Amino acid sequence: MTRNLDTALIRTFITVADKASMTAAANALHLTQGAVSQQIKRLEEVLGCGLFERDRRGLRLTRSGERLLGKGKRLLSLNDEIWAEMASNAVAGKVRLGVPYDLVGTMLEPVLKAYAGTYPQVEISLVCASSPELVAALVAGTIDLAIIEERVGPSAGECLVIDRLVWVGAKGGVARRKRPLPVSMVADTCAFRPAVLAALNEHGPEWRTVFENGNIDATTATVRSDLAVTTWLASTVPADLDILSADPELPALPNFSINLHLPRHGVGPAAREFAAHIREGLARRQQAA
What we know:
The chain is α/β, with parallel strands linked by helices. The protein is built from ten helices and eleven strands. The strands form three sheets. Strands 3, 4, 5, 6, 9, 10 and 11 form a seven-stranded mixed sheet that branches. It has a two-stranded antiparallel sheet with strand order 1-2. Strand 1 (52-55) and strand 2 (58-61) form a beta hairpin. It is globular and about 65 Å long. It starts with 6 loop residues before the first helix and ends with a helix.
């Protein structure tokens, strides 16, 4: 029996243990349920013991699994610490990251802070724009990697998170009840715009645009002032605004993926490590949700 433990298998085991579900772990890791099951089976074969048993409430750790969980977390923590310390000396240069406006101050802020702390020699440049504009910038070579918001489906990028597109309004506001419905959009290049307009035209009430040529701060101001409603990913909605999911007159909206796009011409060390930080940071965020 080999005495080497694959950290990828340990990471999968910890995710399954935390989620108490193969399906939930597969979603968090962006793997198929079959792939997760195979990884757990391989780890059990390496260790020579069972790690999970199933009862009416779902998956439950065996005693061997309970012992492995704490030690496995310490192992991963030490592995990540060693890797960060050793790799940080070899990674330098510049990296240009393209990010949609709504993700910079929400889910990506901890990732940016962690990367900057791990690789202080790297000069980070942020390019904020709409997702279609970022796709064009990546093709043009003016950015090194990009986070792109796209409708769930086939994509040239790597899916990191799937989130709900939701209607948003002021707390206790009346804009949602006005007809025509006042709608605020950031710009005509917004990734959500085609889906929102299709939903409104097919199943929504009469509507009008209030604002659609500026930045997300201006859109946020119109919604906070109860001048209009807007649409955002559920995970990016400010705490002082309401998700209007209970309003039957507002049409349903599709889910969107947050995808990582890398250039076709190759990725440098700084960008490659940035991509790894983004993957791991968003995976941890999903696990904690």
